[in-house]
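This part of the workshop introduces the protein records we will be handling. Getting from the letters to the tokens is the skill we practise here. The record below serves as our worked example for the rest of this section.

…
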Amino acid sequence: MNELPASQAYRLLEPGPIVLVTTSQNGKPNIMTMGFHMMIQHAPPLIGCIIGPWDHSYSALRATGECVIAIPTVDLAEVVVDIGNCSGDAVNKFDRFDLTPQPASDVAAPLIKECLANIECRVADTSLVDEYNLFILEAERIWIDAGRKEQRTMHHRGDGSFTADGDVLDLRERMVKWRHLQR
């Protein structure tokens, strides 16, 4: 085995797919690309997200306490990277990247029509924001386009390369302790 610097742990433990986060402040919607997030618990459904003051969306999330986590698929890979390479303070990302905002039910932040799924969230806890830029969000509604042809998500490898979801290993029959999660 070869040793890697401990600072590269994120490259091995990337928790989930790259997502897009939408916010809306004073009627102005924005989108950011986010790779650092994690599920915290099932019920209530809590999601931890790293969004720092270097992100234009940070002030909107702090001010409004709500956002949408949109889950793009591999056909949007280049758009997802390009969204992360510009700032919402200088450009309307919905217009620039030809994405369609759709109204959410419970939050002002828009859903993204072109994404596989959208999760409406409210900030549940900000106690770790000042020290770690860690927002704890509670998922309130989930919208999914089950008929979407492309459903593979992409995962950042920490160096500008990505992996795409592929084969599914179905081990549900072995998950005897967690059957209540199989809905």
